[in-house]
Amino acid sequence: MCRNSPSQADVKTFQALKEAPKAENYPHVYRWYKHIASYQSEFSSLPGDSSKEYTAYGPETTELATNVAKAPEKAPAADDDDDDVDLFGSDDEEEDAEAARIREERLAEYKKKKEGKVKPAAKSIVTLDVKPWDDETDMKELEASVRSIEQDGLVWGAGKLVPLGYGINKLQINLVVEDEKVSIDELQEKIAEFEDYVQSSDVAAMQKL
């Protein structure tokens, strides 16, 4: 080539080749051959002396054309024998199998621990205001009645009397409930059944534990 452009040297060398070079054997020459082939319609107009033979363009070109033209096809590598005796593949397969076994064991162990771990029950602390009918209501009996309600997931806490006015006090009592076991609405319905003492009840406060 003349600098970076095709020339008569490329044309003569191209024409000296009986067939395209094998890409697997001569990748660079094959790339050159395909490039020059794209100029076939312009061969006569390319720069250089078209009267010269390809051998006149230097030993490198001569050697290149001669070697490519005369070189026998490269014999395929003896892949069959290599495929039969894989010196490294077996080790890799064993390592992969061992890694997979260890991974499966760890996953199984993690799953077992996760299944065996008991999730803490969701709980709430609640403050109830229980209001009596009047100032003559026996507040001790009222509180005793409320505390008599027993249920799984229900724990009564401290209670106190809080003045409402006109000599009337309400019972303000704390309790802890497991959310999945105790319904506050149902609990209030049970408290309302002590109708001799209880006028109504309200949730004064509630928060998750």
Automatic annotation (TrEMBL):
Q: Which family does it belong to?
A: Belongs to the EF-1-beta/EF-1-delta family.
| Residues in Elongation factor 1 beta central acidic region eukaryote domain copies | 87-114
Cite the GO molecular-function annotations of the record. Answer: guanyl-nucleotide exchange factor activity; translation elongation factor activity
Question: SUPFAM superfamilies in the record, alphabetically?
Answer: eEF-1beta-like, GST C-terminal domain-like
**Pfam families, alphabetically?**
EF-1_beta_acid, EF1_GNE
Which CDD domains does the entry mention?
EF1B
Annotated Translation elongation factor EF1B beta/delta subunit guanine nucleotide exchange domain ranges read 123-209
Stored SMART domains: EF-1_beta_acid, EF1_GNE
The alphabetized UniProt keywords are:
Elongation factor, Protein biosynthesis
Composition-biased stretches, type Acidic residues, lie in: 78-96
Q: InterPro entries under this entry?
A: eEF-1beta-like_sf, EF-1_beta_acid_region_euk, EF1B_bsu/dsu, EF1B_bsu/dsu_GNE, Glutathione-S-Trfase_C_sf, Transl_elong_EF1B/ribsomal_bS6, Transl_elong_EF1B_B/D_CS
Signal peptide span:
none
Q: What is this protein called?
A: Elongation factor 1-beta
Q: Which GO terms describe its cellular component?
A: cytosol; eukaryotic translation elongation factor 1 complex
Query: What Gene3D superfamilies does the entry give?
Result: 3.30.70.60
Q: Region Disordered: what ranges?
A: 68-96
